[in-house]
Amino acid sequence: MDLRQFLLCLSLCTAFALSKPTEKKDRVHHEPQLSDKVHNDAQNFDYDHDAFLGAEEAKSFDQLTPEESKERLGMIVDKIDADKDGFVTEGELKSWIKHAQKKYIYDNVESQWQEFDMNQDGLISWDEYRNVTYGTYLDDPDPDDGFNYKQMMVRDERRFKMADKDGDLIATKEEFTAFLHPEEYDYMKDIVVQETMEDIDKNADGFIDLEEYIGDMYSHDGNADEPEWVKTEREQFVEFRDKNRDGRMDKEETKDWILPSDYDHAEAEARHLVYESDQNKDGKLTKEEIVDKYDLFVGSQATDFGEALVRHDEF
């Protein structure tokens, strides 16, 4: 199966799931935990290692000597210092942690990039994406499977234009990442809300009422008795989702539901790392301050809090 067929298959599965839901869907986009380890620096720095590097990359440091860990950490610090002023601020550290935690997203984009960048110019135009994804379906107004590919393409184009900040219909890798994973970018949140409402709002009145909300999660299929979780969701809609008590969710209420303002784990961890490493208490870190506290940021044979796995040569 080629990439185009895979994407279309995925879209068809999604469309079917949306048209006839049989089980509860999780529409809510929560910020993931930085680590499944307990955050207890008195015991070890496992949580901090996972937070700073990402869980998989953190394992690669566990078999290094302290000297090797310090050397590689120094190279990472150069990447974190985005403005190259010789200091790592809390904001730069927060950005780095978020990037490290979402490495799986960037890996996903990287794996698809070559398929879409047809002319190999390091950019992906809307025409390239459209041709790879839809191809011959563009000229078929009545495909055998009955699925409306043109309608799906219109939706994709709208999202592509939103991701394309400069409006030239050509996406950089970061813009293409925002297109594929809009929930990860603040400036894409409105399109996430709009698409969600279009999926659930069956009568197209611009709102999500109680039955539409439940219908997105559960189909009775002839069953008179609802599961307990469905009854709980009805109560959640009335008590918490529908904030103004008008019997339906508008755009802002839907946004509050699917994109909640969660506790910012990356911000808290960045603040913690700066506090623990900032020797002169000026509110920012030098490379020396970070490397001096290397065991907080990364592992090594000397600290060996994790299982030693095969070493990766590149971060």
Number of helices: 16
pLDDT < 50 runs, ≥5 residues: 9-22, 304-315
What letter string, H or E per element, gives the SSE order?
A: HHHHHHEHHEHHEHHEHHHH
What is the SS-derived class? mainly alpha
The tally of beta strands, per DSSP, is 4
Q: What portion of residues belong to β-strands? A: under 5%
Mean pLDDT: 86
Radius of gyration: 24 Å
Give the overall form. Answer: globular
In short:
The chain has helices spanning 3-19, 46-53, 55-59, 66-80, 90-101, 103-116, 126-134, 149-163, 173-180, 189-200, 210-217, 228-241, 251-258, 265-277, 287-292, 294-297, and strands at 124-125, 170-171, 208-209, 248-249. Helix 10 (189-200) packs across helix 13 (251-258). The protein is an all-alpha fold.
Structure description:
By secondary structure, the protein is mainly α. 53% of the residues lie in helices and 3% in strands. It is built from 16 helices and 4 strands. The chain has helices at 3-19, 46-53, 55-59, 66-80, 90-101, 103-116, 126-134, 149-163, 173-180, 189-200, 210-217, 228-241, 251-258, 265-277, 287-292, 294-297, and strands spanning 124-125, 170-171, 208-209, 248-249. Strands 1-2 form a two-stranded antiparallel ribbon. Helix 10 (189-200) packs across helix 13. The longest helix has 17 residues, at 3-19. The protein starts with a helix and ends in an 18-residue tail after the last helix. 25% of the residues are buried. The model is unreliable at 9-22 and 304-315 (pLDDT under 50).
